[in-house]
Design goal:
The structure is a homohexamer of 245-residue chains.
Chain A lengths: L1 E5 L5 H14 L5 E5 L4 E2 L5 H18 L5 E4 L7 H7 L4 E3 H10 L4 E6 L3 H10 L6 E6 L4 H6 L1 H17 L2 E6 L7 H5 L6 E4 H15 L17 E2 L3 H8 L3
Parallel strand pairs in A: 1-2, 1-4, 4-5, 6-7, 6-8, 8-9
């Protein structure tokens, strides 16, 4: 199967890092196609950037409609997930959604660790209806660049947070944010509970959905659009809205 | 005060209708500036269109940053409300949000009437945390064009729905969707409960926020962005993201 | 318009302070009529006092039924709000309700600061269905008299609480309690998030509702009573219950 | 033990009917003292009447403070329950609260049948935090006088409602409203699920609380008031607020 | 009446201690029959043990079906409560359920103190739909054997926890776990809020249900089974499943 | 990988049918080991049977501890899922849990169709914290034997239910109950939304968890038991409780 790993920001290095993580997680036979939006934020760390990136992401996805079997949104805010899911002819997964649902299958409540944006993640989890499964979210006092420059020091902070979440009742911990990729493997042994990486969970969830071969809905708010028109958008996205992609 | 009435779709006629409704509702001294996005859907009736329109709306708002005192989103999906609220230096109101909060002040639970999109509105109200205040949502079996062509017939359907919602316990009814504008006045006398129009509520809520003169937050997820960079977006929006609008 | 600012306790000085705050917040053309109940608690700080004050308040309001355009309950417990809303022929607003709904329009979650009574305020917010919008409530370690005697010291405690609430994710803070009136202006500049005063929000919300000119419900639990009889209550309130006020 | 059965309206006949029901339900050794408020609504069927009755009820209870071992509020709205609970030196039970908690011990969800006031009962159950235990509320199309005049016909309607609630998933049904007293015995055999009468449940719950001999809280919002002053209220109630009853 | 006090673990000493507590709490005329399962965990402190004990408990109860008037589950996890309630021809009460419902009648929110298992108790309370009534759960840093060996030291820890819960807003505190039996009496005077013991509450609730004489449901998920067959279970339990016990 | 498909009832034919469905859904390389409990209900259709089956299931699983890579509970009630998850050294999945989480990844709300037991399924979904994702549950008026004898007629009823659920807002439908196995394929084309089969979803979810290689928690309520003793249970289960399986 062909899996589109779609970054939602315009930083190519992040796209490549996500693609590498996806390839490491993928089953044999899963081909990873990585893609970066044509426009939008360099990094998404605020509500407004997330809105802009949503449009950029849809344009990016539309270019691949019909040529990929599934899409994994390689952005921890699961940017534009609902819109992408409606408009694409294949399954679409959000990496944080995938990690949270995986956490559910480990039982009990899960915690989340981020570099910030706690309220945005809290709202995201509430939108998924999973708020009663969430123990807490902890933002470690560090920045993504620091995670790259000094992974030992930042890793220690993440581990302290994971232990604190476990003490609050979390039975697993979702690492949210591209800059935390790889910390699951690095810290797993020292952590009292499982650490979940969105890319790894997301790739596997995408494979699962493809294997199930479920049809798109023919009715309701996730049915693909038909006959819609829009000005000033890319031809492929316009074609999807018209329903003749 | 200067109030920007910002349509989120590209249909100029809808913008003008909304502006007229806003002017009818506004207090003396409130100047209505109407604006239409440069790109995006002709009409928003799906998840994907709502995502595209979000970006278009932010670009539109950015052009008016600093020159208006408040913004009213003239779109019943309250498109990109959170992002707009963060990035603009003035209050931003969603018309459906405004109607729902007004309904709260009438006491009890409220109902909602639309031409479709029930699930999207249900999710919107849940995001506002108002789900326990919602009695029900009814989609009348009619289309916006029919509302224009045969307002008596459609009005009758709306009235039937309003009575049904009152029977379910609704103490007021929000009319959601631009095509329902004006039906509140037309049907109010025959309705057992108050009918709420988002434009009327929204204009007044915008005036209220301006009169209160509250500061923007200096911290948290609604603090204006600074130092953010993005490619391929309009200069005014880029300036807002950099923090030097 | 004529706005009745109705205290629910019998301390005339508090009524006058609230009236002054209301006048400071009101739009030109809004006349503030202040009123104090004939009987009841000197100050409301407990569940039982709140019950007694509810009856006193309804008697007070009934005297003004028909001669005012709206009512603002100048009591942070929003005493007897639902009953007042049902029985009066005009809009009725609670000052804490107004502040909480205003906070909603700033986005995200809000915090609350009081001099005590945390559980009662928590229940009040839950009754409004706004519990998921509430970040936390902090009771500062001070008394209303201390707030008058040493506003600098108490102000400092309030500011510490506001910063703590912002750190917990609150995007705005409601000051609950008459003794906190004016602290919003005093502390706003130093606070990381907007401070909301119930009187200011309430006056503006009352003006909004009057401007919208919504009808009273003809059915349901907020429809004005008719044909009800009660012994030992004031003539004006009895008239309202009979439905011929 | 001495159990005060306190009506909240001023209709002596209802007080006597409730007292009779209480005596029928009471254990040997439980003495029923029935009491009627000095003022207030003849019957409580609206929000405003409920507020007035709250004050009347507290005055009534205060007369018996110290001379009874427990109080059962003989009013299906559980009028002023929280305030009464705080101010009285003994346990206070609401008849609808008692029936709902008894229903919980039968397992699953419960339904409710009333002669109206559905929204007020829904709010009451939500205040008790029991909304997820509630299957539905059905208001039968009949009036309390009809229940007295033609109990067979009304009983049939109640039975139809009970069956409908069972079909919706209710494992028991609470009969709310004094006019439904006795219908539990009359209809129990024909009903698919248990019918719960508030007076019977309430008397037994009051006996239970007395037998447990739990202390009043020394802190928090249910701790008895001390040092509070109020004007124009009865001497016994004023004494309770001062804390020297 | 004959009340079966059914332990769910196989430690006879705990059965006897529970029976003694039940006898101390029971009304005159209530005969306590104590029983211990034939198989299962020595003590239940984990999810898996709770599952095994559920079956053992049903077998135990089935032996007494028809010969007792009610059952009190003497296990703080309320093991197999729903199944026992369905299958037995008499009322079945869980000791923690009983304590939580009693706490509700004291008003406000309650706290809980345990020796561990916080997440399991949190889930139990959520299953009862009482999560909004729960202030918090605190696990004291002690073990059941320590509670026996050094009740003064452990009692002190319990008291510290009770005070902390009261400070968080709890108006009463449920002591969960057999090893905390008796600490309610020991610590009540020093505690700011009422301490609730599950055995005492449970015995009284069982008496209450028996006195009400409610019928078993004839429909729904709590209706007694009929015509069900199972292999390898005890004859009495098999008879209950067949419906001819 | 070796996947244990564990029936929870004792009907070998159902075990074989589930195993066949699992093999049809499994990826190459997944070996299906089917197993039937030694004792317990022939079919689980009530609360009490579910309790008994829980113990039987744990005994069954314990026999395979260490020799399988994952467990799929082939019972639509997800019997004893939490306990099994704790005690087994490998991932454990419930078939209904798997279908519900898969439904979440299709977006929006899901519906459920069963042959009965609506309240038990509603409680199960609430325990998973997914109640806000659930549109409704419909029990078709048919029995499992009828589904085998006349699949066309029963299929038609299922299809009617699926369309009704879609009209209520469901974006997908979970088929709950072994007797509905295969109806997803039979009806998918005629259904407006995706039909989800628990066995298919569960097999894939089990493969996913195995591929992720997550560790068992070292702390909390899902940490494997150690040092626990129990009487009268099988040696393998006793070994698991002791922690030396």
């Amino acid at each position: 199967m062909r899996l589109l790993v779609a970054n939602a920001n315009t930083t190519e290095a992040i796209t490549q890092a996500c693609a590498a993580a996806a390839r490491a997680a993928a089953a044999p036979g899963t081909e990873i196609i990585a893609a970066t939006p044509r426009f939008g934020p360099a990094v998404i760390s605020s509500r407004a950037e997330n809105v802009i990136a949503g449009h950029a992401l849809l344009e990016l996805l539309a270019e691949h409609a019909g040529s990929v079997d599934a899409v994994l949104l390689a952005v921890s805010h699961d940017t534009a997930l609902e819109g992408a899911r409606q408009v694409m002819p294949c399954p679409v997964i959000g990496m944080t959604e995938a990690a949270c649902l995986t956490a559910c299958m480990l039982g009990g409540r899960f915690g989340m660790i981020t570099f910030g944006g706690v309220e945005m993640y809290r709202e995201l989890i509430a939108r998924y209806g999973l708020d009663t499964r969430l123990a807490d979210i902890i933002a470690v006092n560090a920045t993504p660049p620091e995670a790259v420059a000094d992974p030992d020091s930042v890793g220690n902070k993440v581990l302290v947070a994971a232990k604190a979440l476990a003490a609050e009742g979390a039975n697993s911990v979702v690492l949210a944010g591209a800059a935390l990729a790889g910390f699951d493997n690095r810290l797993q042994e020292a952590s009292p509970v499982a650490l979940l990486d969105g890319m790894a969970c997301g790739v596997r969830m995408a494979e699962l959905l493809v294997s199930l071969g479920l049809p798109k809905p023919a009715a309701g708010s996730y049915a693909p659009p038909t006959g819609r028109s829009a000005a000033g958008i890319s031809l492929p996205l316009a074609a999807l809205l018209r329903g003749n992609a």
